[in-house]
């Protein structure tokens, strides 16, 4: 009886020491309950759909503001805009020419394809260097480039619409192809005047697109607020 009473308090003290040193002081909440309370204190995790909706309206808003500012700059300084467009066109020709030359020497394609890539790359580099000789050369090459592209696109679009009777809105497709072809001829025949008109139309178009995108961004923001945060 005495031996049992001596071991009883010692076991009790040992048990209490294990609780204290084990991270369970007297009066502390039980471990599952503490985890539950910490879990309730954490903010809810943002769902992927909510994050996507929040980012979408911001991207559209930034794009709209950029388009609006660019359109205003084009209308205020059309001459400078043409020069900048010509310089960017020259850089595009140089970079594309370098890539085509790299493809011509560094690929295992057929010899004919490599020769075509070499000729195209060398011609692009030559035209790109001509763009940097003066603003008029770059604007002229840009106008001719766009005019030739519209000319080829108009012919192919019209022929495709004529040869395919099942094409949707076939009549409008033919009209669009003919108009593109005529626009290409006008741009080649009078490049400087046509590019100036094209710059004016482009500036107005950028302003309209910018205002539309800004309005669309705020509509997306209103819809995004209705998406639950955890979704």
UniProtKB/TrEMBL annotation:
The lineage of its organism: Bacteria, Bacillati, Actinomycetota, Actinomycetes, Kitasatosporales. It comes from Streptomyces murinus. Residues 8-20, 32-42 have a biased composition (Basic and acidic residues). Residues 1-44 are annotated as: Disordered. The chain crosses the membrane at residues 55-77, 83-103, 115-136, 142-162, 169-188, 194-218. It comes from the Bacteria. InterPro entries: Acid_resist_chaperone_HdeD (IPR052712), DUF308_memb (IPR005325). GO terms for cellular component: plasma membrane. PANTHER family: PROTEIN HDED (PTHR34989). This is Uncharacterized membrane protein HdeD (DUF308 family). Keywords: Membrane, Transmembrane, Transmembrane helix.
